């Protein structure tokens, strides 16, 4: 209880010191808000992704048979073949003209007697003519073309097997051809409806969410900067005699650190949550009350952890000016490895474990999941483990400082 009384005394002292700085205190909150707001507005204007255009592919059918015509029509009419692809049937002359105008990425050519050769077990190859000025787009559709080719090979093997047993059973040529045709069409339609015509590997990158992505990242950076500036505002260079007087008054390192952490965390959390509510109101975001509570939990945990980290890093170095520089470096690392300035996807792969166990990244990740992706859960294991570890380090560092220097 005595320790807690001392903590509350130093909390009151820190609040009193902040009240005496009432002229500069608003600048602590307003100046970062203006600067980060302008910076994010510029970044959103420059890096906002444009609306993606579909990649257009042509289908040219030189085979007049019914199976080939059905394949081409099915491909052209299937709007859900793969997201971002537009497939149109056209003549070879039209396809060549569109490639010359750079309005067509490539076209798939079904050669003459394509189905006849396939029915007889002969080699049947599709021809793909690409646009030399659109090599990247041509590479993207290669997955779809490979799937079509694999289907043709599998279908050809099945058709030859069915044809062999149909002949063995003495089936007439008309019935056998009808059976083979029906089997081929069934397999091809199955491939189109299986949603596997194109292998898709998706990497989540929330920057495509638009302006809200920059707002969420700005909120994260802002609450971290606010905490740092509050911490700096309460720091002061004390001589040895003043430290002795503070110690006699019960002001141990633990008491001062706990009071500093509580004061800065409470003020930063209140302003950050208030700003979050204002943003949700202005953006008309339909966010459930439960998710607002989850956001508040994430923000408070992040602020408390960062506050303790700042205090510990300040204790490591006796020089007042150097300790301020070290704390600034710590804050920059916290923001950098959160992925708020440079998204995680642009970092080397070997840094993935750092992000997985970085509390600031987990905070921002789940803030984005709640606000941008509509999630209704959060995982706080990394944050709680980090908080527990830092609290133990905080206690150990406080005991060491008291025995070593005072």
Report on this model:
It comes from Jeotgalicoccus aerolatus. InterPro entries: ABC2_TM, T7SS_ABC-Transporter. This is ABC-2 type transport system permease protein. The chain is mainly alpha-helical and 406 residues long. It folds into two domains: 1-39 and 205-404, no CATH class; 55-193, abc type-2 transporter like fold (3-Layer(aba) Sandwich). The protein is 67% helix and 5% strand. The protein contains 16 helices and four strands. The chain has helices at 2-20, 25-47, 66-77, 92-100, 114-119, 135-140, 142-168, 173-193, 211-234, 240-248, 253-282, 289-315, 320-336, 352-356, 359-372, 381-405; strands at residues 55-61, 85-89, 106-110, 127-130. It has a four-stranded mixed sheet, sandwiched between helices. Strand 1 (55-61), helix 3 (66-77) and strand 2 (85-89) form a beta-alpha-beta unit.
Query: For the CA atoms, what is the radius of gyration?
Result: 33 Å
Largest sheet: 4 strands, mixed
Q: How many structural units, i.e. domains?
A: 2
Class by SSE composition? mainly alpha
- Uncertain runs are 194-203
What's the overall geometry?
Answer: elongated
Instruction: Estimate the strand proportion.
Output: 5-15%
Instruction: Report the total helices.
Output: 16
Report mean pLDDT, rounded to a whole number. 78
Strand order of the largest sheet: 2-1-3-4
Task: Count the E strands.
Answer: 4
Proportion of helical residues? 55-70%
The succession of helices and strands, N to C, reads: HHEHEHEHEHHHHHHHHHHH
What is the terminal separation in angstroms?
23 Å
Domain ABC-2 type transporter transmembrane: 24-400
Keywords: Membrane, Transmembrane, Transmembrane helix
GO molecular function: ABC-type transporter activity
Membrane topology: Multi-pass membrane protein
